[in-house]
Automatic annotation (TrEMBL):
This is DNA polymerase III chi subunit. GO terms for molecular function: DNA binding; DNA-directed DNA polymerase activity. One of its GO terms (biological process) is positive regulation of DNA-templated DNA replication initiation. InterPro entries: DNA_pol3_chi, PolIII_chi_sf.
């Protein structure tokens, strides 16, 4: 299977509730992937970011509920969406990585599908360009979309 990295271009940096635009989009994309039967890992930059996404997913309307957990939480069953941060990740295999980190996670080689973001700010764009180059060097087919 061809490896694929999809970058979403974020037009604004405005907050949507407590989440920045790419975090809100990450939650929505994770929900969409879960509805398609995919097992998702959201790799956050910090533990606080992971907690924010966890809270945002819990606050969705009941009919929009998405089963998820934070890495390291003990659950009776493996949840389809895991939210991790550096130094904390469960070992379950996942189909899709949603990357919110500034660098590529060290476990990138275990994924064939990745979603990443190009933020509106210049520093974020520069970091995204570096990740884009690395994905391409790793053999990912590159796709770019407007958010």
């Amino acid at each position: 299977m061809q490896k694929q990295a999809r970058f979403y271009l974020i037009a604004e940096t405005a907050l949507q509730s407590e989440l920045v635009a790419q975090e809100a989009l990450a939650c929505e994309l994770a929900a969409q992937a879960w509805r398609l039967g995919k097992r998702v890992l959201i790799a956050c930059a910090t533990e606080q970011q992971a907690l924010n996404l966890d809270e945002a997913l819990w606050q969705r309307d009941p009919e929009q509920f998405v089963p998820h957990n934070l890495s390291g939480e003990v659950t009776q069953y493996a949840t389809p969406i895991e939210i991790s941060w550096p130094g904390r990740r469960n070992a379950q295999r996942r189909d899709l990585l949603i990357n919110l980190q500034q660098q590529l996670p060290d476990f990138i080689a275990s994924f064939t599908q990745v979603i990443d973001f190009v933020p509106a700010d210049e520093e974020g764009k520069a970091q995204a360009r570096e990740r884009y180059k690395l994905y391409r060097q790793l053999g990912f087919e590159m796709i770019t979309e407007k958010a």
